[in-house]
Amino acid sequence: MDSDTPIYSSRIIKNYLDFIGKFYPEFDVDALLSYANISRYEIQDPAHWLTQRQIDRFHDHLTLELGDPDIPHKAGRYFASAEGLGSLKKYALGLVNPTGAYKLLGRMYTILSRAATVESTSKGPNAIEIVVTPKTGIDERPFQCDNRLGTFESLAELFTGKPATIEHPACYHKGDPHCHYIIKWERMPSAFWRRIRNFCFIISVPAVILLNFALPGFGWAMPVLIVFGLVGALSGYAEWREKSELKRALAMEGDTAKAHLDELSRRYNTALLIQEIGQTAASIMDRDNLIRKVMAAMEVRLEFDRGMIMLANREKSRLHYVAGYGYTAEYESQLRKAAFHLNRPESRGIFVQTFRRQKPSLVDDISEIEADLSEKSKEFAHQSGARSLICVPIVYENESLGILAIDNLRSGSPLTQSDVSLLTGVASQTAASIVNAVAFRKLVESESRFRGAFDHAAIGRTLASASGRFQRVNASMCAITGYSEKEFLSLSWKDVSHPDELKLIQRTIRELLDGAAPSRKLEMKIIHKQGGPVWVRVNLVVIRDSRNTPLYLSGDFEDISQRKRFESALEESEGKYRNILQSIEEGCFEVDLSGHLTFLNDALTRISGFTQPEIEGKSFRAYTSLRIAENLTQQFNEVFETGRSIDFTEYETTRADGEKRYLELSASLMRNESGQPSGFRGIVRDVTARKSSEEEKRRLEAQIQHSQKMEAIGTLAGGWPMTSTICSWVFRAMSH
Fold it and tell me: Does residue 63 or residue 445 have the better pLDDT?
């Protein structure tokens, strides 16, 4: 425990100040408190606690300035005096005798200090033993022991009129583990006179008997009357002293009871205020109306003359007055027009500073802080007429929402740190209520939007419990299934799922509830009210609470029956188309823009000699010559640029087995849904046989022409003489 831990009640310092005020009225108390870092409002608050460092600095400065090291002992004696004891005196005197008072002081030591434990043991009717043991980590100073000695001495004086005598056989400050005090006091006056009365009564009885025998006749009567009169007087006086002490004790008990009742009343009103704020927050969702109710409850339950709440705007740039009590109509009108700027560096008012720092402020005297205020803040303070005030921030989860301010203009009752603590609790409850009100309003707005989006959605929407029972459904879903809303809400997922899909949907829901995925999309069949299947695309989402427990299963349904019919028709058409493609002799192909095969039919594999896995996905350059590949690339580029098709161009290629083939190709440009080129589609014919026939035909024609020429030469040779002219003609003909 360090020296900055609050462990000493402010009552101790208040007793010092009362002592100084009585015996040293000229002493500068403000300088003393300033040196000790203690404020006056902390001293006025009996619930406030001070640190060892503050106590040490207070003592050191006080004894230095007064030049009297015995001040702690004197202050202790004053503390237990009739003037200084205060509320503790009422408890002590209510116990009638010193023994009870000392025992109570030991038990109530925790009201004054958390630094030590106290044990008290009775040692007879007028003696008691008290042991004070400092707690571990406490660095208590010797002057604190002197202060206790003074208190113990003076407490007995309240009952007997004389201070107690104290033996101090062991002291913590001399190396002992604790401080040991043996306290003795004289008997109380009533007890003394009771003893005198009893003693006189005991002596008077034998004296009367002796006088009866010693004096003749009735001579003994007068002495006997005197003796009994004396005994009666003593008895009456002792009775009067005892009744006076009892009367004084009962009066003190009455004052104590009144103080207790006042404290209970304050606590009761505080509890009722918090309860009323909570009830108000639960029933009123309008923020400004809620704050007005809070102010009305504070006016009734708390003992402050005036109060107000200011809230920041959405941009957190200004504070605006929302509600208050105790102000005149004219001043409240000024408050409503005023705006305290939060985003200006020159704004230094108490409200703005409290909002920015998120710390409560207690101003005991506004005049003391005027030097730190702006001119506008000074003017506002003067108009309010307040001399002291408390301002606490309204904060929720580290976000400042506004401020709560109170002051006592009429009663003039001092404001204390306990009031700050009380108002901090009220502000905290108010902040939560404000946030709840705003959140509820947003929730209502959100729910309204949700209802609109849910009920009027073009797609079917459902909300089912975690068990699968439907709890909400929109009109579109009713239109998809043919059920009315009332009929649908009596169904579950099992009732509307097609038998073929039941296991799928049960497994999907189970996985969603187990947390395998936040949502799932699937296409499935559900059952129409008339019994027929309806194809739907479903998006399922699990809605969970803050503890991750599944609450609802939300489903969005889109009727895709028409699309499924189109897909079925298209699939049937594609099947026919593929059968045709696979049955024709021509090779059909599709390539992407880079020339890689994306589709081919069986005829193309027969023509190329490659299997489908060997060439699908490969570029045409892989199975054509470089010259042919460059030629095809040039033609495909021309198709891409012009959009015109290739009309049956021939090219030579090599089959997988090395055999050369002649092919005829036609191709056109393919486009995607957006009209952009996506590849090429074409047909390939094997014209090798045709090319061979054409070559054979040309060869035969050449042979025939050659035979005819030779026949003509033979005819000429057989009928005419072979002259040089004829020979030259023949050679020319042969050359042709």
Answer: 63
The three-state secondary structure class of 215 is coil
The 10s digit of each residue's pLDDT in 270-298 is 777 777 777 776 677 788 888 998 889 88
What sign has the CA pseudo-torsion 363, 365, 368, 374? positive
- Three-class SS of 676-734: CEEEEEEEEEECHHHHHHHHHHHHHHHHHHHHHHHHHHHHHHHHCCCCHHHHHHHHHHH
Greatest Cα pair distance in the chain = 232
Of 645, 660, 686, which residue constitutes the final position of a domain? 686
Higher-confidence residue: 79 or 58?
Answer: 58
| Residue 380 pLDDT | 75
The CATH number covering residue 634 comes to 3.30.450.20
Helix 375-384 with 329-337: angle, nearest 10 deg: 160
Which residues of 127-178 form beta strands (DSSP E)?
127-134, 165-170
Residue 245 has pLDDT above 70, yes or no: no
Number of neighbours of residue 570 by Cβ within 10 angstroms = 12
Main-chain phi, psi angles of 191, to 5 degrees: -65, -40
Q: In this structure, are residues 138 and 1 in contact, taking their beta carbons and an 8 Å threshold?
A: yes
| Residue 382: DSSP 8-state | H
Considering the domain architecture, whether residues 64 and 113 belong to the same structural domain is answered as: yes
Closest CA to 122 of 145, 144, 106: 106
Domain range for 652: 584-686
Asked whether residue 264 is assigned to any structural domain, the reply reads: no
Per-residue burial over 514-534, b if 16 or more Cβ lie within 10 Å, else e, is eeeeeebeeebbbbbeeeebb
- pLDDT (tens digit per residue) in 388-440: 889 999 998 889 999 999 888 765 667 877 788 788 888 888 888 888 888 77
Q: Determine which helix (DSSP H) or strand (DSSP E) holds 653, and give its type and residue range.
A: strand 646-654
Return the SS3 of 325: strand
The Cα–Cα gap between 115 and 131 comes to 14
Question: Which distant-in-sequence residues (6+ apart) come within 8 Å of 72 by Cβ?
Answer: 59, 63, 143, 144, 146, 147, 150
